[in-house]
């Protein structure tokens, strides 16, 4: 689970900025929104408001870039992602850190990098304890050799292995050591290096970023008969006019014709890499493009089975294709996995959750999400403009955040909890009245009459 994030010198975020998921001990409402792990109460939800261009999307981008840096290294697109408010920022280090819970252990993992040069300047991993202390598990500075904490007692075999890994890595300024320690490395269940694997896998597998421009969603579990039954039950409750969703099998050639060539080739490469890297080659993947929805099932080296969905509307004679549905209906299918997924410790980070959805549909979706996952260690952090859900019966004060540009044009983040509003306060009205900031400020403009 996410505990806290810290950003510095990234896009519109200049100085160090934090958002925390630790609950306030003064708020007594919506106690089901908290999960107690050891002595720490962690929130399950976070909703972020702000005017256009305030920095909301940049907050979502932080998660996407953080995950990508861990998976494959600093991407080329990041060279322009330093904060451009000050000239010196181009050659200054940007800092990224997540505090997370994996199992029942608390970690703080982060790194700093000069993005314009794609050069890593530092990296660290700490284990955090409930008494406020911390133990450094490993750290590196610049191109120096990574160092383990002296308190980590290793067997002779693991000590020799680490010496080799550290020596080989010395001088590397382009790759994260966390990534390197998960590249073809195998650890026993008693290995003292398990924290490398646990933190890496949480970042890569438990952070799901969904943006309006996400071209593909890869959800192996997605639809078998059980999940299809759940989809049919859910879709009827959203008043879309759809009475049934069914699966229809198509050929690979039909799939190739239904999507851009570059996307189809990307899908084929992804399937090949999955087959090559896994001994068990049985898997499923679901893809959602702007106008299509496909599922591919692979079993060994057999021909992949490709299916798509067909939608039946009340009193209609023919079924409809996914591309014939409205943006709002297609958006629901984007978000459906969030309702169906029971995989456990997942952090969903969603940009513009309400996009193309009616306000009541957005509220209904959130109600379902909270009901279906009330027993799960699942978190939802999303940006929105939808003020109607800014309601203390839906969210706690410490779950509502605002992003605003300051006088230096840099984004700042702050919580509604600092305003200490009464429970009966109509938050949405106070927000639109400007009480909390983070709304557009319009300048005057006059049309001159033609002479």
Structure, described:
There is one protein chain. By secondary structure, the chain is of the alpha+beta class. It folds into 2 domains: 1-210 and 347-451, 3-Layer(aba) Sandwich (Rossmann fold); 220-340, no CATH class. It has 10 helices and 20 strands. It has helices spanning 56-72, 156-169, 177-180, 194-206, 225-237, 252-258, 261-277, 327-340, 359-372, 427-432; strands at 2-8, 17-20, 34-37, 40-43, 45-49, 94-102, 105-114, 119-128, 134-141, 147-148, 207-210, 242-250, 283-288, 293-298, 305-313, 320-321, 346-350, 378-383, 400-405, 411-415. It has a 7-stranded antiparallel β-sheet. Strand 13 and strand 14 (293-298) form a beta hairpin. The radius of gyration is 24 Å and the shape is globular. Mean pLDDT is 83; it is low at 438-445.
Distance between the termini: 65 Å
Contiguous low-pLDDT stretches (5 residues minimum) are 438-445
Average pLDDT reading: 83
Q: Helicity level, as a percent range?
A: 25-40%
Rg calc: 24 Å
**What name does CATH use for the topology of the largest domain?**
Rossmann fold
Series of H and E elements: EEEEEHEEEEEHHHEHEHHEEEEHEHEEEH
Shape descriptor reads: globular
């Amino acid at each position: 689970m996410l505990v806290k994030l810290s950003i510095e010198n990234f896009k519109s975020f200049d100085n160090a900025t934090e958002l925390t998921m630790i609950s306030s001990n003064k708020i007594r409402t919506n106690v089901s929104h908290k999960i107690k792990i050891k002595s720490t109460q962690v929130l399950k939800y976070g909703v972020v408001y702000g005017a256009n261009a305030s920095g909301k999307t940049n907050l979502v981008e932080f998660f996407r870039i953080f995950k990508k840096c861990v998976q494959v290294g600093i991407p080329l697109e990041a060279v322009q992602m330093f904060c451009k408010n000050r000239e010196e920022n181009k050659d200054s280090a940007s800092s990224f850190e997540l505090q997370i819970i994996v199992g029942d252990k608390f970690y703080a993992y982060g790194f700093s990098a000069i993005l314009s040069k794609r050069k890593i300047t530092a990296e660290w991993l700490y284990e955090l304890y409930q008494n406020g202390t911390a133990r450094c598990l490993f750290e590196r500075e610049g191109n120096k050799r990574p160092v383990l904490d002296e308190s980590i007692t290793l067997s002779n075999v693991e000590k020799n292995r680490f010496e080799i890994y550290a020596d080989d890595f010395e001088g590397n300024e382009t790759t994260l050591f966390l990534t390197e320690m998960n590249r073809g490395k195998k650890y026993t269940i008693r290995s003292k290096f398990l924290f490398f694997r646990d933190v890496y896998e949480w970042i890569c597998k438990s952070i799901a970023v969904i943006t309006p421009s996400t071209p593909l969603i890869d959800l192996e579990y997605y639809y078998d008969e059980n999940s299809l039954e759940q989809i049919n039950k859910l879709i009827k409750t959203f008043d879309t006019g759809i009475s049934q969703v069914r699966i229809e099998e198509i050929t690979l050639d039909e799939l190739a014709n239904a999507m851009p060539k570059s996307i189809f080739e990307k899908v084929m490469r992804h399937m090949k890499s999955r087959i090559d890297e896994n001994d068990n080659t049985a898997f499923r993947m679901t893809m959602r493009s702007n106008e299509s929805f496909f599922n591919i099932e692979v079993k060994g080296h057999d021909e992949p089975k490709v299916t798509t969905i067909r939608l039946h509307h009340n009193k209609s004679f023919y079924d409809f294709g996914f591309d014939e549905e409205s943006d709002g209906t297609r958006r629901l299918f984007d978000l459906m996995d969030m309702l169906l997924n029971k995989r456990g410790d997942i952090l969903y980070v969603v940009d513009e959750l309400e996009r193309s959805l009616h306000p009541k549909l957005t509220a209904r979706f959130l109600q379902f999400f909270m009901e279906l996952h009330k027993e799960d260690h699942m978190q939802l952090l999303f940006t929105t403009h939808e003020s109607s859900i800014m309601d203390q019966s839906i969210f706690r004060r410490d779950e509502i955040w605002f992003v605003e540009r300051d006088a230096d044009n840099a984004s700042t983040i702050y919580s509604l909890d600092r305003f200490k509003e009464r429970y009966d306060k109509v938050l949405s009205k106070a927000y639109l009245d400007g009480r909390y900031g983070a709304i557009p400020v319009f300048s005057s403009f006059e049309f001159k009459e033609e002479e």
